[in-house]
TrEMBL record:
Transmembrane feature ranges: 246-268
Full protein name: Butyrophilin subfamily 1 member A1
Principal cellular location given in the protein's record: membrane
Limits of the Ig-like domain: 20-135, 144-232
PROSITE patterns: IG_LIKE
Pfam families attached to this UniProt entry: C2-set_3, V-set
Similarity field: Belongs to the SKINT family.
Gene Ontology CC: one annotated term: external side of plasma membrane
Keywords of this entry: Disulfide bond, Glycoprotein, Immunoglobulin domain, Membrane, Signal, Transmembrane, Transmembrane helix
Organism of origin: Oreochromis niloticus (Nile tilapia)
Gene from which this protein is expressed: LOC100706332
Taxonomic lineage: Eukaryota, Metazoa, Chordata, Craniata, Vertebrata
Amino acid sequence: MNSALNAHLVLSLMVFAQLPSSFTKGTIQVIGSSHPIVALVGDDVILPCYLNSSISASDETVEWTKYKLDPRFVYVWRDGGELESKKNPSYKGRTTVSISKLKHGDISLNLSKVKLSDKGKYRCLLPDMGETSVELIVGAVSLPGIVSVQKAKTGVALQCESAGWYPEPELLWLDGEGKLLSAGPTETLRGPDDLYTVSSRVTVEKRHSNNITCRVQQRNTNQSRETHVYISDYFFTAPPNPAVCVSLLTLFVISLICVLLVILVCWIQRREKLRIQTNHAVAQMEQD
């Protein structure tokens, strides 16, 4: 009787001892980020992934993979160590998971020297616990530049250009008060490296003030770069009217001809007078 009771008690204790572990695993969740992670080319970035309990994950299998990547693994942790041989060659030397944080349930991926090709959706998987996904948006930016300043009929024509953007940005012109200026359509070119070049022209009138801003921005990556230009009053000076120029030139030519005619007449009269005087002197000498 006692031996049967003892056996039942031992069995009950074994079942009870297993319940917390089963129950704990059943409530553990793998959590990522509900919002995309944004990084610029060349940056280091962290793709978040952690357990909702600070238990150690160092004894678990951890797999970081990227959708539509072959081989798909960007990081694998198994049997207490990293499996470098599983990693996609394009990610070698660029992905790590902090071992110290792994012991506290943080399995976030550290990705260094971000490339444009790194953009996309990643999966953080613990086979015994669950999985989550994280989207990475990669951006590239550069400073815009004013490449042309020319006089125009109604003001000054400016051209702004910026190369090396991703994703496709928009280009805006602003006056000295920060108000948008009406400009021509933005010209957009996409190079073989998938980077965008944008260019735009605007004609600025004197009433817009002399301080003009060219701004290039990308809303998805929340990036913006701008350059400023001060336009001298000289550029706003109205060019001479062609009709007036022609009239002034004609008047000048006529005046010059008149002056030459006067000089010629005076010369002829002086010469005639000198001839008469000479003839008179010769006649006087002959009479003597």
